[in-house]
Amino acid sequence: MSLVKVRKTGKKGLVFKALAGLELAFVALEIVGAGGVWTAQSATAGTLTIPLHPAAQVQKTSTVYRCSGAQELLDKLPKPFVSVTYLNAGAVSLAVLQVEGETQVFSNVIAASGARYTANRFEWWSKGDTAFFSEVGLEAAKPLTCEATHPASARHTR
């Protein structure tokens, strides 16, 4: 089970933390001042900073999905529901979800249709209320089909 916590930090903007299970690892995304810098931190992996356009508005959307398909892929996701947080700021688009018990930050890549994200060896592809989850190297297994269980909730920050 993951805990998602969002808090305002005055001039620094938004801090988002996702704590995975009993681990103390976290992902924090922060918008800093007028320069617009997005920082992702992990207790075990260091820090990643993504510069943003100063006018970029941050949108956070959370959606809960129920997935079906190959058991081999289902075993990699939380049960019975998968919670996905989408973070968008200008040209930066991320999807954050639990895979194999760890928080994964998926980055948006080019897609012919919908929004396609990749992290490590995994792919998350969403279009409307449907998303697909797959793993590179498991081409024999069809991607999981995941359906949103309720409308997404969006939050805009500046």
UniProtKB/TrEMBL annotation:
Keywords assigned: Lipoprotein, Membrane, Palmitate, Signal
SUPFAM superfamilies (UniProt xref): YdhA-like
Residue ranges occupied by any C-type lysozyme inhibitor domain in the UniProt entry: 82-137
Superkingdom: Bacteria
Name by which UniProt lists this protein: C-type lysozyme inhibitor domain-containing protein
